């Protein structure tokens, strides 16, 4: 092989050998850029997925927390979400109360509703014409709320009568050293007081027949009142 041809061949071989890494570098550079873009894209997807997973985890955690058992009334469970819902339904002025007052208030309200509902079921108020009419007239009302309302109105109506209100007025008048306003001026106030007292008596009576178990944040029963 002539020297020129050999040099040319050698030069071509050297060029190819030297150039090969350059091509490889260009290829690696393209690959690197592609990998970088892919990595960035994957990072975004990972970040997005992580965000979605975090949101899902938060949602699941909130759902799990909302599902934590607070109290069991007979066979009916009252969860944290029920308590939150009861607080949200309270009048604005009551919702401004501190949590240490607000939460027990809501829990007691839910317990009372369940106790009354059980009593209403025992009296078959789901078949009562007044309950049926209430549900039909107020489309937003459900049967349970209608039963609770009717049962409580009737029970308090039996316990707080015109005669009992007048008797309470005479009792206050007889035991007071100050001048008492006319009966009609304080009748509504006395009636409200008697209804509150009657409600407490009703709730106390209903609690005697139903087991109520309170639960702590660890899900374990704390205290119980048995029938």
TrEMBL record:
Q: What is this protein called?
A: Peptidyl-prolyl cis-trans isomerase SurA
| Signal peptide feature range | 1-24
Keyword Iron included in the entry's annotation: no
In this chain, composition skew of type Low complexity spans: 26-41, 52-61
- What are the UniProt keywords, alphabetically? Signal
What is the organism of origin for this protein? Sulfitobacter delicatus
Species classification: Bacteria, Pseudomonadati, Pseudomonadota, Alphaproteobacteria, Rhodobacterales
State the InterPro entries in the record: Trigger_fact/SurA_dom_sf
User: Record's SUPFAM superfamilies?
Assistant: Triger factor/SurA peptide-binding domain-like
Positions of region (Disordered):
26-61
């Amino acid at each position: 092989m002539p020297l020129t041809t050999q040099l040319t061949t050698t030069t071509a071989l050297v060029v190819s050998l030297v150039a090969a890494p350059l091509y490889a570098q260009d290829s690696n550079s393209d690959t690197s850029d592609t990998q970088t873009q892919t990595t960035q894209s994957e990072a975004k997807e990972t970040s997005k997925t992580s965000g979605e997973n975090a949101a899902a985890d938060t949602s699941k955690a909130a759902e799990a927390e909302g599902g934590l058992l607070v109290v069991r009334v007979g066979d009916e469970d009252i969860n944290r979400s029920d308590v939150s819902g009861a607080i949200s339904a309270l009048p604005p002025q009551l919702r401004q109360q501190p949590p240490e007052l607000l939460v027990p208030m809501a829990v007691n309200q839910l317990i009372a509703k369940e106790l009354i509902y059980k009593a209403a079921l025992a009296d078959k108020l789901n078949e009562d014409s007044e309950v049926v009419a209430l549900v039909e007239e107020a489309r937003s009302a459900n049967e349970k709320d209608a039963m609770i309302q009717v049962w409580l109105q009737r029970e308090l109506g039996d316990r707080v009568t015109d005669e009992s209100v007048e008797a309470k007025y005479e009792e206050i008048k007889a035991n007071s050293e100050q001048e008492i306003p006319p009966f009609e001026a304080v009748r509504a106030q006395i009636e409200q007081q008697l209804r509150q007292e009657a409600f407490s008596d009703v709730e106390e009576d209903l609690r005697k027949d139903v087991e109520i178990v309170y639960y702590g944040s660890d899900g374990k029963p704390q205290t119980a009142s048995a029938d």
